[in-house]
Automatic annotation (TrEMBL):
It comes from the Bacteria. This is T9SS type A sorting domain-containing protein. It holds the Pfam family Por_Secre_tail. Residues 307-385 form the Secretion system C-terminal sorting domain. Keywords: Signal. InterPro entries: Secre_tail. Residues 1-19 form the signal peptide.
Length: 388
């Protein structure tokens, strides 16, 4: 059980003065077992909880994607939007929605924090049994490609939740296996690898922070989980149940046992206690940020580029390039499902210039414009909205 115990798109909304509105938590009551209380915002810089978005007592309307209408849920079951066993949460900033799954249920729920509307995505892909601890969904995050990912305790199901044409689809990507070098620190063993939460990096790899404090890196290309170390600087009995990346690229961890929040350096796995909350029971954390995101810290080239307008009601955008960038740059445009819908090479000569790029065949909607240098390294990203 949990108490035993990361696309290109989401970072582009930027870091602002209200960063706490991009950080969310599942919180619970002070009990020996998980009892869901609410979803709320978290000020990740100061470790302070904020607005309650949705509670166990909220009045709800649930729209079923399968049945195409409002449904009445059995509140006494685990298969409901306010189930007491909540332990998996992700933030989809492309739609500003919270995506979650009850721990003992295969149901996927999409909550609009503003309207409080909930969409139910029923699926037969997730194989979950309330009495089988290995099958419980306890880790969830948004990948760098914009899709949502969830993993059960034993890693036997790695779920991908994607959206296309307004419909959500759940796919099982396979079984995550232990790297041979893990030894006693097994990803698939209860004491060392179960529970916790996960984050994503900008290469669409995932890091699982197990309840034990062990950290595993999951390479999506081969679904291999490699033990990279154990968090230091937290109490011996600290149960790591929530993890999410803050605006500075550090990982914030939280506990279902009500301990303090900690900031963890992913490189050293050294933790530093945050001020603020001490007794908040947190079952999961979610944010729009990613590990190893070098776009803001390393890419000084980004200050030499810009795209305008970002709200496009004509058939083109302008790419502004100043004198510090020369050679060939590649412009890619992605839709919000992660599909590359347009690619164009731009030749940059000496001096500042504005290149007009015509958006051929792109329909109304949100897109991400990505620019890479001659080596293929991404140096600029920006979200645009086509309204034509």
């Amino acid at each position: 059980m949990k108490k035993h115990l990361f696309p290109l798109f989401l970072l582009l909304l930027g870091v602002d003065a209200h960063a706490q509105q991009d950080f969310f938590a599942i919180t619970g009551k002070d009990t020996q077992s998980i009892t869901f209380n609410d979803f709320r915002t978290i000020d990740a810089a100061n470790g302070i909880s904020g607005e309650k978005i949705f509670t166990a007592d909220s009045s709800v309307k649930v729209f079923s994607q399968t049945r195409k209408g409002i449904v009445a849920e059995d509140r006494s079951s685990y298969d409901n939007s306010q189930s007491i066993t909540m332990a998996a949460l992700a933030y989809d900033s492309s739609n500003n929605n919270l995506v979650y799954m009850p721990m003992f249920s295969s149901n996927v729920y999409i909550l609009n924090p503003q309207t409080k509307e909930i969409r139910l995505v029923e699926n037969n892909v997730a194989k979950i049994s309330s009495c089988d601890i290995k099958s419980h969904i306890t880790r969830m995050t948004t990948g760098y490609n914009g899709n949502i990912y969830a993993v059960n305790n034993a890693g036997t199901q790695f779920l991908e939740i994607s959206k296309k044409a307004g419909q959500y689809t759940v796919n099982d990507l396979g079984i995550i296996k232990d790297d041979p070098s893990n030894g006693r620190n097994s990803f698939t063993a209860m004491e060392t690898g179960f529970g916790g939460d996960m984050i994503a990096d900008t290469d669409n790899n995932f890091y699982v922070f197990a309840a034990s404090g062990n950290v595993f890196k999951i390479a999506t290309k081969d679904l291999n989980a490699k033990f990279i170390g154990k968090i230091t600087g937290i109490p011996d009995n600290y149960s790591v149940n929530g993890s999410a990346v803050n605006a500075q690229g550090k990982v914030i961890i939280a506990s279902a046992k009500g301990g303090a929040l900690y900031e963890v350096d992913l490189t050293t796995l050294q933790a530093k206690q945050l001020p603020g909350e001490q007794g908040l029971h947190i079952y999961d954390l979610a944010s729009k940020y990613f590990a190893n995101d070098k776009s803001s810290a390393l890419n000084t080239l980004a200050s030499n580029l810009d795209i305008y307008p970002t709200r496009v009601d004509e058939h083109y955008i302008n790419v502004h390039v100043n004198k510090n960038i020369k050679g060939i740059i590649k412009l890619n445009i992605f839709d919000m499902a992660g599909q590359n819908v347009m690619t164009q090479n731009l030749s940059v000569k000496d001096g500042s210039s504005d290149e007009k790029v015509y958006l051929k065949g792109l329909v109304t909607g949100a897109y991400i414009v990505n620019i890479a240098d001659e080596s293929g390294k991404a140096i600029f990203n920006k979200k645009i909205l086509i309204t034509k």
